[in-house]
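Per reviewer request, we include the raw input and output of the structure prediction for the construct analysed in the revised manuscript.
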Amino acid sequence: MANPADIALEKAAQLEPLGDDDAYALLQVPAGDLDVLCEVAGKMRDAFHGRTLTYSPKVFLPVTNLCRDRCTYCTFRRDPEEAGEWTMAPGEIADWSRRARAVGCIEALMCLGDKPEIAFRGFRSFLAELGVASTAAYVALACRLSLAEGLLPHTNAGLLSKRDMAMLRPLNASMGLMLENVSARLRDRGMPHQHAPDKDPVRRLRMIREAGELRIPFTSGILVGIGENEAERVASLLALRRMHAEYGHIQEIIVQNFRAKECTAMADSAELTDQEMVRTVALARLVLGGEMNLQAPPNLSPDALGYLVRAGINDWGGVSPLSIDYVNPEAAWPAVERLRALCEQEGYGLEARLPIYDAFVTERFVDPMMLAAIAALRAGPRTGQRAAVHDPRKGAVA
């Protein structure tokens, strides 16, 4: 009699949806059978997405790296007056948006720390001087500045209220929040989210649900390698799958691997091996099904890109010709030409996309003003010329 893992794999191979029990049964597939997982996951991806992978030409705009949370793996966050602390002024946002458009970027990624106005009086003063009432209102200003330069904003501002998301919806092509993991255990004493109240999975799931109620095209995902186990990864993927089944608003899911960083409490923590990362991606494809857009950041697994394609991704996420990855500054973006050559070696094409997937460019999911902005660009993002990658505070770094 076939074991549950074989039954689940056979269902997936026939493109049948997997139940929760099937999803957990896949964990019984031996680590040595990675090629079997990848073969089924790759065929599932091909059936729904064909032989083309995508990426989003973006500029990463770290609106502020002040953050009230203290995750033990993070080097993005800063305290006021700490070395590297940076809040982008409106002029900087406009300038970098203009430069980004000139080299072919389409997406303006608005990325920032959680609720800095709650923790830092100086940041509240900064907002008051600009005449804005909250961090979310400042992000709205930043979005308007980028829109004026021809970019489409995608905001990832940590936890936002439903009211804040409603305010930002007309100014964003899409929005996002990484679920990271549904396990409350990661907030226990000594765990990576102990001092990060905004990483409470209940709060994060609530925001993702409220985004669905607001019909916002949404990006989420899991962060792997921070102390969770495989069953908790599957539970997190299932939670996102259920949310999408209810609201239909999750446009893509990211599988992002932890990278150890110097000067953090997790500097000596083991990273996922390439094999573990590829297995996680393949499991994600099988659990989520073929229709979901599945992404793995190429700069975090530079030696496993071909394997990630075979594991079932159909998207590389944002890749910038201009700005560094401020969350993982040690991990340079690969050149688009390299990604294209890699895809071709695997038998796939590579195309640029907007920060919103075509299936979501409808009146149901997009405000009329944003639909007009998308229409101006939808014929196809310009790839532009490759520029030196810059840190706006330091000049060219690559």
